[in-house]
Sequence to fold (397 residues):
Amino acid sequence: MKPRHKKLVIIASAVTALGIASVLVLNAFQSNLVFFFSPSQVVAKEAPIGKSFRIGGLVTEGSVQREDGSTTVRFSVTDTAETIPVVYTGILPDLFREGKGVVAQGKIAANGIFQADEVLAKHDENYMPPEAAEALEQAAKAQKASLVQ
Amino acid sequence: MAINWFKYSSPASFYSLAGKMIPFFTVIAIILLAAGLYVGFFIAPTDFQQGEAYRIIFIHVPAAWMSMFLYVVMAFWAGIGLAFNTRLSAMFASAIAPTGAMFTFVALWTGSLWGKPMWGTWWVWDARLTSELILLFLYIGFMSLQAAIDDPRRADKAGAIIALVGVVNIPIIYFSVQWWNTLHQGASVSVNQAPSMATTMLLGMLIMVFASWMYSIAIILKRIRVIILERESHTSWVAELQKKGTVS
Fold:
């Protein structure tokens, strides 16, 4: 082997070793890299209950209730399997909507309600004009109706 | 006709080749930039969720892609330079770093401006945002390390090691939204899936991506010419250029 080829092999194997090492490290940190916990994980007590953590999921349809004369809002977060009630006082982001993604930071109180001190909207990766979104919704409704029949 | 590629691996001949290529790439970059911005701001439709605010995507996504792509190219040339001791490859790596850092900064900055109205926050420490910030630090680390070492050949070697080590961050950035729960949404455009974007939106974004490529090539060639002049200032061909008055 020529010396410069030997050098290339050394560099390539060093980079490979480094890659494997980082995969292992990331694998070990997997649970700590989680930005939020799903309601199912909270129910299964995988979330750090008692400490502040983030919960993420969809805002349950029809669950949003605003208290008169204050910015307090009650809603629930669901991952379709489990649902956690949330209460929050403050300004909600523009994209906060029923049926859409949300990430809330806070603690679970003794009464089982998640007391949020920050609510962020998590949107999806779909971008389309409103007419296309409407057409999709109509199609989904039609499909649902035909399933019921 | 066989082109003697090795001829252009000598800094002196690459200097003049780069000089000829710069106007070409600059013109294409300007045309594509104008077309991309026009499609993005006037032809692409309003988004059903985000309204007009989503249009920052036409800057944000090309910048984020370039930030990752340029890093890989930089690490590739730095690695080649380290392995084969070729001068021009190391100069390429040094010339790419500032543009890569600029795109990384733009991606983080526009992302922050976008995050505030849509997510409700300027910044969160989720895996995607954090790994992109690490990328900025890698670029800055590469540039400062090279600047700190006086001997250019030693600076090249030290920089190459940072560049190669940092490559592991690239797949982490790219797959972060799949591997972990993040606030950042998943990819709208990927290799194995139909893009989840309306066609004109996608078109505008892709034109902006090509514009960024052309801009990057033009500015990197420009920068490499400066680096060549600096490092070859002791040679007779640079002295000749100076005599002719083409270089001040």
Q: What stands out?
A: Chain A has a mean pLDDT of 84. Chain A touches chain B through 42 residues (CB under 8 Å). The first helix of chain A runs from residue 3 to 29. The CA atoms of residues 139 and 145 of chain A lie 10 Å apart.
